[in-house]
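Need a sequence for this fold. Nothing fancy.
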């Protein structure tokens, strides 16, 4: 019996570790209406339409200065949210961890197109703002003299109230663990009943 418990404990430990690892790399989750995409790495929700500035008619070519991009994102009110903002540099670059899911986005830019971030840096020539690319690069430009693409995010995940979501992530670690424990309990109970029958006096 001790050996059986040891084997079960080892199996459960492996299952829990695998479930936690899988959950951390679950990738992107798209809403049912395909308007929002949740990034579980940075815990933010992106506009599914990367070129929304252009396709919504806000700007003809979709390129804005840093100040314009910041104003656009903060004044944006779409898909049940008014808390939009520009992504930070870290959030933009961490999106690379989910690059296998980039096909979920619509109206994609080229991998080397520059996208504004909210991250700024003070330099001798003035305050500069970082950009990132879908290809994973980043750099800085002087906000007043540069026009780049803008893409908005909001903190956290879209909700049932704002969208009926399709959650493509795997089961949470706790769920996997509970299910595994229940299964282990059934195995142990069956073993006990079998042993009891064998030891029962005839």
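Here you go.
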């Amino acid at each position: 019996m001790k050996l059986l418990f040891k084997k079960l404990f080892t199996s459960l430990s492996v299952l829990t570790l695998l479930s936690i690892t899988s959950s951390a790399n679950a990738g992107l989750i798209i809403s049912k209406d395909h308007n929002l995409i949740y990034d579980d790495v940075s815990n933010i929700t992106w506009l599914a339409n990367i070129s929304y500035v252009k396709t919504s008619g806000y700007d003809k070519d979709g390129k804005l200065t840093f100040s314009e991009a910041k104003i656009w994102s903060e004044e944006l009110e779409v898909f049940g949210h008014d808390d939009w903002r520009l992504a930070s540099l870290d959030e933009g670059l961490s999106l690379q961890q989910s690059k296998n899911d980039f096909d979920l986005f619509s109206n994609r830019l080229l991998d080397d197109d520059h996208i504004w971030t909210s991250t700024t840096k003070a330099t001798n020539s003035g305050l500069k703002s970082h950009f990132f690319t879908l290809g994973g690069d980043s750099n800085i430009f002087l906000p007043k003299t540069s026009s780049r693409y803008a893409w908005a995010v909001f903190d956290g995940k879209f909700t049932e109230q704002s969208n009926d979501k399709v959650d493509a992530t795997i089961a949470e670690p706790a769920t996997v663990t509970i299910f595994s424990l229940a299964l282990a309990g059934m195995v142990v109970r069956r073993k006990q009943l079998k042993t009891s029958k064998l030891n029962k006096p005839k």
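For context: The first strand starts at residue 28 and ends at 30.
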